[in-house]
Every structure is written in structure tokens, then in C-alpha cells.
Amino acid sequence: MRDQLPLRLVLASASPARRKILQAAGIEPDVLVSGVDESLVVTDRADELCLELARLKAQAVLTRLRPATDERTLVIGCDSVLEFDGEILGKPADSADAGRRWRRMRGRSGVLHSGHCLIDVTAARRAEAVASTVVHFADISDEEIDTYVATGEPLAVAGAFTIDGLGGPFVQRIEGDPSTVIGLSLPLLRKLLADLGLRITDLWTKVAPGGQSVEPLG
């Protein structure tokens, strides 16, 4: 029976942070980078942009898969953007751009949107949604901004900040799910799986972080 097949989750992302989120939740994904040109999607709505990019990433990886008959294959595509002052902010163009952004953002807030597209390859079904979280930035100094930008971290992430890396001390607080800000919302993934008739516990591996044994719940 299809529902009794072991599950395989393929993450359509090169983001180490997204993979770590899944691993910390007891899920070991396969990783295939989509190679999608993000400049192809043009819209003035942040939620539409990140969801369309998530779809494109999942679909691009789907076309390269050769699913086995003895497993149920899922593909998850994600994309994140920061909505700030009515603008959509992805990754900064360069260090100067990252510095300018932080001088605007400090002491203020924006909304981090993460689009999710989950495709059940075996069942030919799809579930998708956007998770959004308000981010309040600390009022940091010019020196802190310059030092942070010089690390290179802001250049690799949407909105030019992280909460799970060097940028964590510069985020005062958030309103919403922290994993959304990192790039993959675990509560939303649980809901999307449920929409496809699956449980997130079905994706747990036998060895969880820390080496403790995790038995499938059936």
C-alpha cells in the first residue's frame, strides 16, 4: 500500500540553516539544489514572491528526481524575503548594500515571509502556504553594523540577518515562529504534511540529534 511506504524528504535548497532545522527536528533530508534564477519572478507582493519561488524550486528538483517504487518521495521548496518599509528585500547585492540596509532597519521592524511548497511525488499532490513573522531589530551602532557586514554572513541570507548565527544578538525580539525566520517553518511543515494525509512524526529518523534513539510511532 502507498500509505505504508517509507518516506523520503528531498530539500530543494542549498541553505545549511534549513537542513539543520530539519535535522534538529529528527528529520534527515536528502538535498538537491534547485538552481532557480530568482530574478525571473517579478511582483510587488512579498508573500506572492516567496511562494512562487518556493514552487519553482520544488518543481525544478522534481523534474530531476527518479522516485523509487519502494518509497514515498516528498519534495519541499522554500524561499524567504523580508518586507520592510513596503520594499521586498532578498539577499543584499554587496557589502555596501548590506550596510545601508542595517542602518535603515536598526531600531525598527519588518516582516519575514517564508514560502513553502511541499510536493508528494508519489501521490501527485501538492500543499503550499506562506509563514510570516514580525522581526524587531536592535538599535545597533555603526561599528557593530560594519563588523557584522565584514563577516560576510549578511550577504548570504534574505534580509541581511540571521537569528541562528552571528546576527542573533542584533534581533531584539520576534513575533511568531522562530523557524520561519531561519527559513523553514516546522509548524507549517507539520500542517502541510497533514494536508497530504501524513504526520511529521512519520519523517523522524531512528537516531535523533544527540544520539538518542527515536522509534517510529507507527
TrEMBL record:
<keyword id="KW-0378">Hydrolase</keyword>
<keyword id="KW-0963">Cytoplasm</keyword>
<dbReference type="GO" id="GO:0009117">
    <property type="term" value="P:nucleotide metabolic process"/>
</dbReference>
<dbReference type="Pfam" id="PF02545">
    <property type="entry name" value="Maf"/>
</dbReference>
<comment type="similarity">
    <text>Belongs to the Maf family.</text>
</comment>
<dbReference type="InterPro" id="IPR029001">
    <property type="entry name" value="ITPase-like_fam"/>
</dbReference>
<comment type="function">
    <text>Nucleoside triphosphate pyrophosphatase. May have a dual role in cell division arrest and in preventing the incorporation of modified nucleotides into cellular nucleic acids.</text>
</comment>
<protein>
    <recommendedName>
        <fullName>Nucleoside triphosphate pyrophosphatase</fullName>
        <ecNumber>3.6.1.9</ecNumber>
    </recommendedName>
</protein>
<keyword id="KW-0546">Nucleotide metabolism</keyword>
<feature type="active site" description="Proton acceptor">
    <location>
        <position position="79"/>
    </location>
</feature>
<dbReference type="GO" id="GO:0005737">
    <property type="term" value="C:cytoplasm"/>
</dbReference>
<dbReference type="InterPro" id="IPR003697">
    <property type="entry name" value="Maf-like"/>
</dbReference>
<dbReference type="GO" id="GO:0047429">
    <property type="term" value="F:nucleoside triphosphate diphosphatase activity"/>
</dbReference>
